[in-house]
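Usage

Read records sequentially. Each one opens with the input sequence:
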Amino acid sequence: MYYVSTRGWSGSVTSAEAIKRGLAPDGGLFVPETIVRLDPEEIASFAEMDYRERAVSILRHYLDDYTEEELRECVDGAYGSGRFDDERIAPVVRLSENAYMLELWHGPTSAFKDMALQILPRLMVRANMKTRESRETVILVATSGDTGKAALEGFRDVEGTRIIVFFPEDGVSQVQKMQMVSQEGSNVHVVAVKGNFDDTQNGVKAIFSDEELNREMLENGFRFSSANSINWGRLVPQIVYYFSAYADMLAAREIAEGEKINIAVPTGNFGNILAAWYAREMGLPINRLICASNDNNVLTEFINTGIYNREREFKKTISPSMDILISSNLERLLFELTGRDAAQVRVWMDELKNEGRYAVIGEEKRKLTEMYWGAYSTEEETVETIREVYDDYGYLADPHTAVGIDVYEKYVISTGDITKTVIAATASPFKFNRSVASAVFGEDEIAGRDEFELLDVLSRHCGLTVPAGLAGLSGRPVLHKRVCSREEMKDQVVQILGLK
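and closes with the structure output:
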């Protein structure tokens, strides 16, 4: 399997090379030359496997320059040895008659990013070996909260790598910030940016494309790569858990072989729901993909109108990991919607960069709305959903997951479609405990308590165990104190790497 760029770069690379590079030379995203199709019998056979076996079975199709033994080692290292607090890794929990929660937050940092970022460093180390890479890999990450900690944890002390994470100083929760600034590891660096996530993400993109800096890196034995979902090695493991959810439902006889399901995903950067699209194209019986946004509803507008417009007010919400106006992974879907017309993708990306918007019309728009249904949840609706879901079902959902549930309910009301639906639960409720506790108990009950105290409040009142990665977080020493402006991000990289 070879990989090509969404923007038409003339070359093609192996999966190891694509994972090592992160971005294509022309700034595009790597995509497989062909999308694998699985026959119904193979999909049905996953019901007899555990999560790790399913992962190897799917990854081998896209990472075929890795041996099966190498893939097993990567998978076992990522999902074995008690690294997840549920041996099922990504369990499916029935919420109501037709709604099922796919819990993706049982990893070491209590967020769905662990599903990919526990395996990516292992894939990358082997990619460097396969491509005879002698330079030290510098992982650059822009995070709206969860990716940063998951990447730091995944790459901590990984030989031949350094990782630099940038996060918006006031755009993450107390818990998320503390998880990052207290991160241990000889090769990890964390920098707060004065601005929002899009400022942070654009700053990282500018660093990647800075020719002068890249020359300096080369002269000093460094090279950049990415752990964001623009890296194929980050996206492909996410495909696995949608097949796994279907297999678990088959095994539990919640669905019959070949029965179609819907998938609802709260998303900002579009990677998580794009992985579901790949699963659909590979043959997983998916009827509709339900795209759930918060008040930063650029994706909702795009799906409903075909117009992508980032020129709007940026809103800070209680679901900060979705506070994004530039959804980078959408580029991969655009490439496929156009029949792989890289020239058209370049036009749209140039329009987005220079004018802040682009419009998809005609056949591409028809394909988009045929596959996707989009809506958003306001702050008030998100809070109400957290409270109602707990009152009605005894299920505690974090704000991002609540956005997914609320939009799923809007979908059912709007369409009348009662197809069984898997809703991605993307973070532990403990990770965003202030918003969750406020919704469930009321603001008066939590007044004067910080997020770290509220971990214990939620645990006592709801009878749940605080995840190990969050317990005792407030007592950890702050190890990373760097703060910079958007314009100073390059200087921070230079200082950290000792280039000047």
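Summary fields computed downstream for this record:
- The CA atoms of residues 20 and 124 lie 6 Å apart.
- Residues 87-109+233-432 form a domain with the Rossmann fold fold (CATH 3.40.50.1100).
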